[in-house]
Design a protein that fits this description.
Alpha-Beta Plaits; about 10% strand; four-stranded antiparallel β-sheet
Length: about 300
């Protein structure tokens, strides 16, 4: 009987406040879409950082089958040239500035390339011979990059010396700023959504004040009285959260997966599988948003 009564009151409330319910859905949809977009952006930053930003400060690319400077005029790096480079890294003039280093073979470079660019259409057309082997060097002081550059850039067998952090810092800075802006906008929109849910619940409760008083007189509990109103907000917010999840899926699928990955072969992008973690978070946020707003608004309007 109680369940039938709650469902009846819920349906009545949704019909009476249809315009406000639609408003709640739309505001929740927009606010949580910003939250989801910020989450996607952070996942994308993590994808870019994932392999080399947190691990590498300087990369010494060695000559391969496709030389790009005069150091590589003799062809791919030889074993003797590689040993000479290792000797320079261990020399008294350079060693104090090197915390650690690792050597990445062409096969390892290909494996990392396939991992980072899994969504790129060019991944299957790249072979190990197309990628250079390299020394990945972590410096004791990142500001001392020029010492490594001057010591190795003209060494036979070295194609180029790249300060990878310097290349990526500006990109990550801009992306973090974009994430911050998206989160600020999302926060403001969530506040608007919470206020709108609260207003919708108050109006609904006000319009049925006589019915509420009768239910109190016949001994209905607070939970039975409040639940239909709370469910109105939760249903509207959940629909908005589902729409926001769909919008985020579209961003990952069509913008990142199709447009960005295919239009820029040098940009590793997150996959749809990686983005799955965002969707339940958005739905949970939608439910919490409505639940908290409902409890706060009903505490005053329906107190005994």
């Amino acid at each position: 009987m109680r369940l039938a009564f709650i469902l009846s009151e819920l349906g009545s409330g949704l019909r009476r406040n249809l315009t406000m319910v639609i408003s709640v859905i739309l505001v929740t949809f927009v606010s949580l879409t910003f939250v989801g977009a910020a989450g996607v952006l952070q996942l994308q930053i993590g994808q870019l950082k994932g392999f080399w930003y947190d691990k590498v400060q300087v990369t010494v690319f060695l000559c391969n089958d496709t030389p790009t400077n005069t150091n590589c005029a003799g062809g791919p790096v030889t074993a003797d040239q590689k040993k000479n480079i290792e000797g320079i890294l261990a020399s008294p003039a350079v060693k104090p500035y090197v915390e650690s280093w690792t050597f990445e073979t062409q096969a390892e470079a290909l494996a990392h390339f396939k991992e980072q660019f899994a969504n790129s259409p060019m991944v299957d057309s790249v072979e190990a011979g197309n990628l250079p082997s390299s020394f990945r060097i972590k410096l004791t002081d990142p500001q001392k990059y020029q010492i490594i550059n001057e010591s190795l850039s003209a060494t036979p067998g070295v194609d180029s010396v790249v300060d990878q952090r310097k290349v990526l810092d500006s990109l990550f800075y801009l992306m973090n700023i974009a994430t911050l802006v998206a989160m600020i906008v999302a926060g403001l929109m969530i506040i608007c959504a919470a206020l709108l849910v609260s207003t919708t619940i108050k109006l609904s409760a006000k319009s049925r004040e006589r019915e509420i008083n009768i239910m109190r007189l016949v001994g209905a509990s607070k939970t039975v009285i409040q639940l239909p109103f709370a469910l109105e907000g939760i249903i509207a917010s959940t629909i908005g959260a589902l729409l926001a999840s769909g919008a985020v899926w579209g961003i990952v699928r069509f913008f990142l997966g199709d447009y960005l990955a295919k239009g820029s072969s040098g940009t590793p992008v997150i996959s749809q599988t990686q983005a799955l973690v965002i969707y339940p978070v958005l739905i949970l946020l939608g439910i919490l948003l409505a639940g908290v707003s409902s409890v706060v608004s009903l505490r005053k309007n329906l107190k005994t």
